[in-house]
């Protein structure tokens, strides 16, 4: 379970606002946590619940070891209710069940917390039932609504919540977090450049398709450097069979772009910014083949290739043209 120190590194503004409300005993009855997937909304809501229930907290920090903290962490606290979509949506019956639960006296205190994940997926009837619930707040009840799309919620629900905007995670923070969770530095750096979603980063790093994609990018670079006459053959025989549609092709181009950024970083001796750190020798070799100016031009060509994909230019034609531009 996260600590407030960790959350302050991931979401400094939201963490400060919430911890101040705890210190001043001015906790709102309803919060709307909005931000993209993987920005720490659920972690923050559970940590906030722990601070709300923990009898042994040190200032704002819950002890993380008492009965209340452990049960919140494991999802077994009788007075902390987490609602998730049932299939594709959160249904009226789920909100009715929640309301029924809250008519009972707290099993161990009068405090209650409910967390609604993917709150934007509530049906119209569920939203109306929740609104009624929010209109009759209890001093010792906290609601936390989590969403990637806050604008899709009823304005009347939004107006009754204190809105907390979760920002995209800082790449260095993502790298550090992934390394703490056991990922190698080279893989963590690469993942943090490709996504600001920690869970998605873990999924990508374990994907066999991605491992091969990474290998193909390095192979393409070697072909362009050592056997340029075979580059188009490589594109048609190996590259296109792996990057089969526009989305996959975009991922390949993202990796290729990171490579040429590393070439530029190597030229300007900005070692700390290099992503492909395990391939440092290959990056150095690439600097002999592409000057800083040429690497910068290659980056522009890759961006143009990505634009062509959006404009529905045939992917094979896009890659063939890009390959010829990089070879010049």
UniProtKB/TrEMBL annotation:
Keywords tagged on the record:
Nucleotidyltransferase, Transferase
Q: Key word Nucleotidyltransferase present in the record?
A: yes
InterPro entries assigned = DNA_pol_HolB, DNA_Rep/Repair_Clamp_Loader, P-loop_NTPase
The EC number(s) given in the record are 2.7.7.7
GO function terms (MF aspect): DNA-directed DNA polymerase activity
Which domain of life does this protein belong to?
Bacteria
Which Pfam families does this one have? DNA_pol3_delta2
Q: What is this protein called?
A: DNA polymerase III subunit delta
What is the species listed in this Swiss-Prot or TrEMBL entry? Pontibacillus salicampi
């Amino acid at each position: 379970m996260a600590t407030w120190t960790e959350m302050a590194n991931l979401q400094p503004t939201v963490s400060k606002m919430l911890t101040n409300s705890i210190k001043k005993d001015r906790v709102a009855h309803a919060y709307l946590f909005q931000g993209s997937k993987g920005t720490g909304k659920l972690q923050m809501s559970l940590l906030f619940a722990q601070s709300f229930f923990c009898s042994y907290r040190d200032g704002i920090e819950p002890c993380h070891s008492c009965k209340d903290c452990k049960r919140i962490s494991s999802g077994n606290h009788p007075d902390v209710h987490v609602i998730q979509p049932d299939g594709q949506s959160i249904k009226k019956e789920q909100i009715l069940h929640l309301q029924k639960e809250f008519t009972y006296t707290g099993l161990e205190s009068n405090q209650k917390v409910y967390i609604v994940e993917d709150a934007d997926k509530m049906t119209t009837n569920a939203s109306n039932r929740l609104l009624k619930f929010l209109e009759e707040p209890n001093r010792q009840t906290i609601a936390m609504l989590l969403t990637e799309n806050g604008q899709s919620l009823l304005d009347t629900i939004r107006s009754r919540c204190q809105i907390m905007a979760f920002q995209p995670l800082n790449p260095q923070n993502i790298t550090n977090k992934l390394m703490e969770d056991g990922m190698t530095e080279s893989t963590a750096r690469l993942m943090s450049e490709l996504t600001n979603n920690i869970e998605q980063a873990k999924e990508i790093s374990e994907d066999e398709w991605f491992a091969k994609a990474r290998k193909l990018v390095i192979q393409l670079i070697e072909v362009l450097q050592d056997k340029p006459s075979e580059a188009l053959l490589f594109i048609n025989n190996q590259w296109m069979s792996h990057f089969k549609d526009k989305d996959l092709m975009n991922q390949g181009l993202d990796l290729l772009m990171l490579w040429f950024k590393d070439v530029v970083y190597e030229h300007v001796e900005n070692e700390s910014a290099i992503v492909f750190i395990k391939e440092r020798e290959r990056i150095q070799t690439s600097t002999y083949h592409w000057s800083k100016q040429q690497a910068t031009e290659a980056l522009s060509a890759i961006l143009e290739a990505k634009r062509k994909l959006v404009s529905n230019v045939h992917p094979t034609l896009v890659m063939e043209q890009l390959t010829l531009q990089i070879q010049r």
